[in-house]
Amino acid sequence: MAMMKKVFMPLLVLVGMLSGPVTYAATDVDALQSAKSLLEARDAKQAYLLLEPLESDQAGNIEFDYLFAISAIDSGNVTRGVFALERVLAINPNHAGARAMLARAYFELGEKETAKSEFQQLQQQQPSDEMAGVINRYLAAIDRSMGLTTSFAAYLDFGIGHDSNVSSATSTTNFVVPAFGNLIFRLAPGANEVSDNFKSISGGASFITPLNKDVSLFAGVSGVQRMNNQDTRFDTSSLDFNAGLRVRGHVDTFTLSGQAGTFYIDGEDFRRAYGGTAQWQRNLDQSNQLSVYGQMARLEYPGNDIRDADRYVIGTGWGHAFSGDKSPVLFVGAYTGMEDTRDNDFDFLGFDMYGLRAGGQLSFTPKLVGYATASYEIRDYDSEEPLFLKSREDKQTDLAVGLRYLPGYNWTIRPQLTYINNDSNIVLSEYDRWMLSVNFRHDFIW
After folding, report:
1. Quick one: which of 75, 1, 89 has its CA closest to 38?
2. Same domain? 165 vs 121
3. d(Cα 88, Cα 144) in Å, to the nearest integer?
4. By residue range, what is the domain housing residue 197?
5. Worst-scoring range by mean pLDDT, 172-181, 253-262, 271-280?
C-alpha cells in the first residue's frame, strides 16, 4: 500500500493540474506553488499548514481545493480533504485527479464499497497505463480487505532483547510456610529470578477465501521460538493453529473460530490448549467500533494433570480513531472469566478473573508509529492454598510502549519496552519483569 501511494501522489498532482481551469487570485500564487512543491517533496503536513488558513477565502477555487485536499488527506486530516474534493467535483465532475483522491480517501476511512465505486468510475475515464495499474492494485487491495478474493499472507520475525526475569520467578530467597509451623525455607539456587539476554524467531502463514459475498473461510498457523543466551532451562516455544468463518454485514461482522496450540519450555511439552472464540463487531460510525466476544479453552498439562482446567472468558471492547494530526487511535476493553480445574481436589489452582485493557497509537510520520498498551487483571483463587493456608489473590499489571518503523519493502522494525508486575498474597507468586526487545519483521502478501 505504501508503494501505491508513492506512485499515486505524483500522478495525482500532475493529473489535477490538467483537470480543469485555474482560477485564483494573484496574491495566492506563491502559496499554491509552494504547496505544490511541498507535496512533490512528500511534505504534506507543511503543505496543509500553509493552505489551511486560506480555506475560508479560497474554498470553491478548484486548484486550491484540490491541493488542500491532497495535503489534508496525506497529513491525516482525511475528512477535511473529502469535503474539499467534493467541492472540486461539484464544479467539475470529470476532474480525474479529484475523483482518484476521493476514492483513496474513502478507502482510508474504511468505506470500502464507496471507494471501489469511485475507482471503477475512474477506470471508465481512460486513465494512463500507470494510473490504471495503481487503480487496479487499489481495487485488488479493497477486494482482499473485504474478503471478496482469496488471499494469502505470511511473515518472518527475528528479535533480540534482554529479560530481567526469564522464569517469572520471585526475587525472594527465604520464605515462611505456615503449613509447617511457620518454618523458614530457602529457595534452591537458580529457583528465583534470573536475568538473561535472548533471541527469538517466529513465523506464520494464513489465508482467507470467500464462500459467497458475505461469508469467508480463514485459517492460519504460527510458531515462536525464544532462546536465552545462558539459562536455556527457560527457553520457550509455541505452535498454534486457527480456522474459522467470518460473516460480514453492512456494519456488523461475526467471527467464529477454533484454536489449538502447544506451549513448550526447554523443548518439553508444557501446556496444550484447544478452544474456540465467537466475536461480534459493529462499526458504529467511521470512527468508532464496538466488539463483544466469548472464549472457551480446554487446558492440558502433560505430566502434571492436576492443573488441567477449562477456561471461559467473555469481554467487550471499544475503539476510536481520531481525526487530525498524527491519526491517534484509542481502544479500551473489559473482560471477566474463570479457570476451573477438572480435578476438584485441586481447586485451589482454579480462579475467577476480572480485567481491563487500554491502549493507543500515534502516527508521527507515515512510516513511524508509536504505541502503548496497559492491562490490569485480578485473579481470585477458588480455595485455600495448602502450604500457605490462605486463598491466593493476584493483581497483575502489564505495560508496554514501543515504536513501529516501516522502512519499506514490507519490513517492520519494532523496538519495545515491557513491564510486568504480579502482586500476590503468596510470596512465591510475586514477581516483576522488564523486557527490552527489538524485532525485525518481513510480511509476504499475495
Report:
1. 75
2. no
3. 30
4. 153-445
5. 172-181
Claim to verify: residue 159 and residue 128 sit in the same structural domain: no
For the domain that residue 85 is a member of, what is the CATH number? 1.25.40.10
Judged against a pLDDT cut of 60, whether residue 13 lies above it is answered with no
Residues 96 and 181 in one domain: no
Q: What DSSP state is assigned to residue 191? A: S
In the chain, how many domains are there?
Answer: 2
Of 106, 125, 145, the residue that ends a domain is 145
Rounded CA-CA distance 427/385 in Å is 12
CA distance 155 to 442: 6
Residues 334 and 376: their CA atoms lie apart, in Å, by 10
Angle at CA 45, nearest 5°, toward 12 and 323?
95
Distance of CA 48 to the CA centre of its chain: 28
Which residue did the predictor score with more confidence, 50 or 326?
50
Give 397's strand partners: 376, 421
Within 10 angstroms of residue 302's Cβ, the number of other Cβ atoms is 12
Q: Tell me: do 127 and 166 sit in the same domain.
A: no
SS3 category, 177 = strand
Task: Name residue, grid cell 496543509.
Answer: 48
Those residues whose C-beta lies under 8 Å from the C-beta of residue 186, and which sit 6 or more positions away, are 173, 174
- Domain co-membership, 61 together with 169: no
Hey, which residues does 377 pair with through a beta bridge?
355, 396
Instruction: Output Rg (C-alpha) for the chain, integer angstroms.
Output: 27
Torsion angles phi and psi, residue 182, rounded to 5: 60, 30
Kindly report the pTM of this predicted structure: 0.77
